[in-house]
Design brief:
This protein is α/β, with parallel strands linked by helices. It has helices at residues 20-29, 39-45, 47-57, 79-95, 114-135, 158-168, 178-181, 187-198, 227-237, 258-269; strands at residues 8-11, 34-38, 64-65, 99-102, 138-141, 172-174, 202-204, 243-245.
Length: 279
């Protein structure tokens, strides 16, 4: 079956054994139209080389992943992390990414004050906002599942992320991920509250009923997430932006040949990435 993949991107972490040029060529070869770039692959290849290769392949870039984490020691300045994120915003602008994914980090090593850390994250986002607006790249707020609060992100609720977007204004937006939000009773309500313009990109994958570790996501259709229903919500609010497949899978998909992963990704995601009104 043939699918319209004009809105579909694969997040590069889904095929981590491919280098930057291998991922660009590998996705394009099978008809995928977008790639969410991961910074360490981009930095290894070079920002200018990445930009050139993306343009030659005709791939759009919904996001650059990820920001510098902000969980530095409470006694240390946030300024170094903020400066790194400004450079990443510059790189995102150069490669044509729509947003920089703000994975903000979990708890600092010398703190148990999660409320205080969330306040520091808010402070850092406001410090980055003028530069984001200047270069035309939005701060993509992705709420992560609460199990990641200790190490990876203290931004753990789509409602809190939406509230932050209210404060930050037009320089920020949401990047919801079904893996992190499917369980939340207010997921649908917060998507509707955000509306189509605030959602910068939308992540697909699946939650395995028997999750084995924190890097054990499923391909859509393998778990318990009702993806057709969620796509219906997005249609209802008129969302016309990109969809990304993002899979962390140490025990399964990361062990397979990347070409197979891309092929299955197209088969599984194809029905849920069609243009509005074409499904």
């Amino acid at each position: 079956m043939s699918f319209d993949l004009s809105r579909f991107a694969i997040n590069q972490i889904t095929t981590p054994t491919w280098s930057m040029p291998e991922a660009i060529d590998g996705y394009a070869r099978q008809g995928v139209r977008g790639i969410a770039v991961w910074r360490h692959f981009m930095e290894a290849y070079g920002v200018a080389n990445t930009r050139r290769h993306l343009r030659e392949a005709g791939l759009f870039v919904p996001s650059l992943c990820t920001s510098e984490w902000l969980n530095v020691s409470v006694n240390a300045s946030l300024q170094a992390a903020i400066d790194t994120n400004k450079r990443l915003l510059d790189a995102a602008a150069e490669i044509g990414a729509g947003c920089l994914m703000m994975v903000v980090g979990g708890m600092p090593p010398d703190s148990k004050d999660i409320a205080g850390q969330r306040a520091r994250v808010r402070e850092a986002l406001f410090a980055l906002l003028p530069h984001a607006r200047q270069v035309g790249v939005k701060l993509g707020l992705e709420p992560l599942h609460p199990m990641y609060a200790g190490d990876r992100s203290v931004l753990n609720s789509i409602k809190v992320a939406n509230d932050l977007c209210d404060e930050l204004g037009d320089g920020a937006g949401l990047v919801p991920d079904v893996y992190h939000c499917w369980w939340d009773p207010v997921f649908e309500a917060e998507l509707r509250r955000a509306g189509p313009d605030r959602i910068l990109s939308f992540h697909y994958c699946d939650w395995l009923a028997n999750t084995r570790n924190l890097r054990d996501r499923g391909m859509p259709g393998d778990g318990v997430v009702d993806i057709p229903r969620i796509r219906g919500w997005l249609d209802d609010i008129g969302y016309t932006g990109p969809f990304e497949l993002e899979i962390f899978s140490e025990l399964d998909w990361w062990q397979r040949p990347p070409e197979e992963t891309v092929r299955v990704a197209i088969e599984r995601c194809g029905p849920y990435v069609q243009p509005l009104g074409a499904r």
